[in-house]
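Supplementary Note 3. Input sequence used for the single-chain structure prediction.
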Amino acid sequence: MQSLNPHVPQRLDQFARYSAKKMSKPVNFICAAPAAQNVTLVGDFNDWDPSAFPMKRQPDGNWLIQVPLHHGHHHYQFLIDGKPTLDPKAQGIARNEKNEKVSLIAVS
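The predicted structure, written as discrete structure tokens, is reproduced below.
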């Protein structure tokens, strides 16, 4: 197999093509909102589109969605009946471009 880059040895070039940064990983988002009628997940990974990731109610009252995310840090919120809500189980809190608090997740 030929190296894609003539300046990089073939064996190193193979690793570059399969780096974690280029791969996505399935991430489960769970929102505890048993009284909610509708919960969606919005974030930098879906351009904050409230229609992109509707969550599914589970028998225990939690809401669930699995989203493939690329390596890195991602900002997100739950929309519970249209109200932006932080994830109490988030890995951290950050601020978006409007200086609003958003939940933070790191994917590796």
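DSSP finds one helix and eight strands in the chain. Residues 24-107 form a domain with the Immunoglobulin-like fold (CATH 2.60.40.10).
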